[in-house]
Protein 1
Amino acid sequence: MGIKGSSTAQIYFNDVKVPVENLLGKRGEGFRIALSILHMGRLKLGANVIGAAKKAINDSVKYANERKQFGVLISTFGALKHKMAEQVIRLFASESAVYRVSSDIDNLMKKMTVDCGDYGRASIEAISHYAVEAAILKVVGSEMLDFVADEAVQIHGGMGYSAEMDVERGYRDSRINRIFEGTNEINRLLVVDTAMKRAMKGEFDLFGEAEKLYSGLETITDNKINGESYFQEKSRYIKNFKNAILICIHGASKCFGKGLISEQEVLNNIAEMMMESYVSESLTLRVEKMSLTNGNVSLYKDMLDVNVFDTASIIRKSALEAIGSFSTPDSCTSLIKAIENLSRVECINVKEARRRIADKLIEDNTYKF
Ligand SMILES: Cc1cc2nc3c(=O)[nH]c(=O)nc-3n(C[C@H](O)[C@H](O)[C@H](O)COP(=O)(O)OP(=O)(O)OC[C@H]3O[C@@H](n4cnc5c(N)ncnc54)[C@H](O)[C@@H]3O)c2cc1C
């Protein structure tokens, strides 16, 4: 279907003998090395799709700035500005998560190399430590590229369906990313399963925090503080989103116990909330950092505003779906009220925010964010 520059074939190993001197690593440690390679592959896929998405956005805006319909350039239409702004926002947000995880892994790798003196072992351990984040990057990145590539075809109209245009190839090439390096269904399950297993091992206190929230559902508010700054407000929203996740994890674990593993729809709801919150937090951290050095970051704040606004809807929808599957008539009302408070964000003019982002892209005629 796509990636025609990469040949794909099955290889079978039947009764293959491997000479002892060809053993990679130590005997019995192969699975750990293989898993680490999977994590690394997911991390790299998350980064890889960024370049492809930038190319698709450049193709989109160039075409929209040339093609005329009804006597005007199609880039002047609000519906197309919405598409191009969304392409930019989703790309920039995914990229923020990629930078964050890469930097976290680099830092841990350096520390572990100093601690154990073995770079190879430190790499495996550091990458494995960020297995959940690697799975998030893989799912978020591949779905971001599919969205961007699909809208690129749409912006080209009928020409987008023609094999002579680059966007047609981009659309086909994009599709594999949701399948290889572990399908997105498997990676979504991994996001929740790995985090819960780590919490059970005591690596962080997930269940204690969740229990506290669950026992005080009636007292949960949106935690709004008077006079909070722009970034304090965004951080509060993200903390609220995380609390909504904890409530769902606790409620689902209590209801299904060990059977939660078979409740993939609920695990998907929780994965969705974890992934979107992680990306929104990464974007917040990036824009806040930029604001300290870059002067005017108003367009990046527009991106953050739209992203957090959309994440709040996803949190609300996913949490309510999960609650529907595990709540009792007694707990339902207080759970819904808690989620409504935790997913509340101020109303903003997302239409104008998207238009400003699209106008900058259209003016530059290329992706320069
Ligand atoms: C172009 C291409 C290149 C590839 N390159 C490589 C490579 O270099 N190395 C390599 O090792 N592999 C490679 N693969 C294989 C690829 O990793 C697998 O195709 C992929 O992991 C999915 O496995 P599958 O095809 O067996 O699908 P299946 O496992 O049969 O999945 C079918 C569907 O069922 C879903 N599903 C399966 N199990 C579950 C579950 N437990 N819970 C919920 N849903 C589930 C899947 O998400 C999917 O939607 C490549 C594949 C392609 C197409």
Protein 2
Amino acid sequence: MRVKAVKVGGSVIAPKNRPLNADIPAILRLAEELSNYLRDSGNQLVLVHGGGSFGHYLVKECLTRDGELRRECFSRVAHYMMMLNSFVMEALLSSEVPAASLPPRSICFFRGKLPECFVDAVKELVSKGVTPVLFGDVIPSSTGFEVISGDMLVWELVKELGIKEVVFATDVNGIYTDDPKKNPKAKLLKEVRADEVLREAIEGEVTSSVTGGALEKVKVAVELGIKGVKASVINGLVPGNLYNALRGKVEGTVIWF
Ligand SMILES: Nc1ncnc2c1ncn2[C@@H]1O[C@H](COP(=O)(O)OP(=O)(O)OP(=O)(O)O)[C@@H](O)[C@H]1O
Ligand SMILES: [Mg+2]
């Protein structure tokens, strides 16, 4: 039995084109793919989902207005993330995934720039055959409150649980040489090493630059000192992609750390 991690992007389940927008058909389909994977492989999963339209709008509004996350914003963002999480949970349970939600704000806090999470809570569920479900959230920090992105959280869990494989489902076909939504000439990367991606991004080499949400996925992992891990980035909007990637057939980008 192996444990793999999955991060389902907010970009897939809650597109940011308008606030509090959930793509229920996508959530139901992905839950079914995860259920099929658990059944067919006998492996276990740790699941993290992003905030998408339930997190980003409110955080942005709070930060623009106050310059920091005040406790009113903390409470409100926490509440809306629970709402998105409850859609995900409902779908997982109806697909017969033995899932249980672990709100990150109750097991993580920020000390400086890096999170510290009480991962025993996650390990305990995994050891009992339960699929823990976590999400990008707001968590306490030494000075107030901070956002922990789903990407950072999944890497923290990969590190602490010694997980060797993680799949990121996003709304594009993988990692490109540039933002594919802005640059039609961007090329899809099939297989890369994490240090190469970072070096190119930092040096802004030739035409190649991995930016935004995509770069964040690599940067955080390197900051956390992730090594010996295979990360796949696939398009979660394409039916079957998540199941296939978990089974080792990646239609997207493989990044080696
Ligand atoms: N080089 C790149 N390769 C791939 N996508 C890129 C690149 N540069 C920028 N992007 C953008 O990154 C987006 C995915 O990141 P984003 O943070 O929006 O999604 P997510 O991580 O799946 O969602 P969430 O942060 O809500 O969990 C894509 O829609 C794409 O437009
Ligand atoms: Mg992101």
